[in-house]
Amino acid sequence: MTFTVRVTTADDWREVRALRLEMLADTPNAFGETLDHATRIAEPEWRTRGARGEQPNGAQFAAIADNGRWIGTMGAFVTDRGEALLVGVYVSPRFRGLSSGVTDALLGAVEQWCRPRFSTLTLHVHEQNPRARAAYERRGFDYTGARLPYVLDPRETELVMVKRL
């Protein structure tokens, strides 16, 4: 299976929407939005989300199979504290794992976007998502010891991880 990785655009709004709904259904506690909320978003907001790939203070990438199916996404943006934060990480179940190369290709694109500006890349991973945490650790992220309340349920926690670039 071959695929390409590229930035997203406003014109990609349908694919951005479809993949976002897939990711929220697949791993609801991995994102700061509910599936119910996302299904009610109108086209202009999806266009704005697609355009994130073209913004100076953020990047959004999609992995697209040769048949045109979107199989993964990953992005980063500059926080108010001036850090690069990895967000929106998702790979469709059939394309997960080291052998597919999708996660590594997407992360490579994000890191390439970050490197001229930042020496580290930070992420937040839900405490009840050990599969994701292990994937990040395999790719050089370390748990900082910091914890944040999960935005959708402050009784739950997200772990802060960082990777030196």
Question: Quick gist of this model?
Answer:
The chain has five helices and seven strands. The protein has helices at residues 13-26, 35-39, 43-50, 102-114, 130-138, and strands at residues 3-7, 58-65, 70-78, 84-91, 120-126, 142-150, 153-164. Strand 3 and strand 4 (84-91) form a beta hairpin.
Could you walk me through the main structural features you see in this protein, from its secondary elements to its overall organization?
The protein is of the alpha+beta class. It has a single domain (3-164), classed as Gcn5-related N-acetyltransferase (GNAT) (Aminopeptidase). The chain is built from five helices and seven strands. The strands form two sheets. Strands 1-2-3-4 form a four-stranded antiparallel beta sheet, sandwiched between helices. The model has no long low-confidence stretch (mean pLDDT 96).
Largest sheet: 4 strands, antiparallel
Annotated CATH homologous superfamily: Gcn5-related N-acetyltransferase (GNAT)
Mean pLDDT: 96
Sheet with the most strands: spatial strand order: 1-2-3-4
CATH class: Alpha Beta
CATH T-level fold name: Aminopeptidase
H/E element sequence = EHHHEEEHEHEE
Distance between the termini: 29 Å
Number of discrete domains: 1
**Based on DSSP secondary structure assignment, what is the total number of beta strands?**
7
Radius of gyration: 15 Å
Low-confidence stretches: none
